[in-house]
Amino acid sequence: MAYHEPTEELSAEARNVHRALSSLCEELEAVNWYNQRADVLEDPQLKALIEHNRDEEIEHAAMLLEWLRRLLPKFDEELRTYLFSSGDITLLEEAGGEDGGEAQGSASSRASGSGSLGIGSLR
Question: Is the pLDDT of residue 101 over 70?
């Protein structure tokens, strides 16, 4: 992923976002490679190893998404709308209203706005 503006004119935050997005692309590409390799492997032990490697890349991608979510309010808004939702993904935005607010069934609306994961007491 290339810079489209002179790097010396970009803020440190913009350069860090670029690094995170580039890294996210690399992690997702690695997931794809490992997934394809695992799909064609016949040796069960090697397949398990390759699937483990793929899963590590998925973890890295998730960590990068979380970093972006924390930094960029629009990422936070969109991820809250679409992740961990149920129903037709293409209808979630419409269910959330014109302003793209949270759709019914999104993770945070299921938690009643309390910040809870909605899983109840762990005691």
Answer: no
How far, in whole angstroms, is CA 73 from its chain's centroid? 14
The pLDDT tens digits for 68-92 are 999 999 999 999 999 999 989 999 8
Domain segments of the chain: what residues? 14-85
* Phi–psi pair at 12, nearest 5 degrees: -60, -40
Q: What is the pTM of this model?
A: 0.75
Ordered DSSP codes for 5-66: S-GGGS-HHHHHHHHHHHHHHHHHHHHHHHHHHHHH---HHHHHHHHHHHHHHHHHHHHHHH
Question: How many Cα atoms sit within 13 Å of 22 on the Cβ side?
Answer: 9
Instruction: Write out the two tokens for 99.
Output: 């302003």
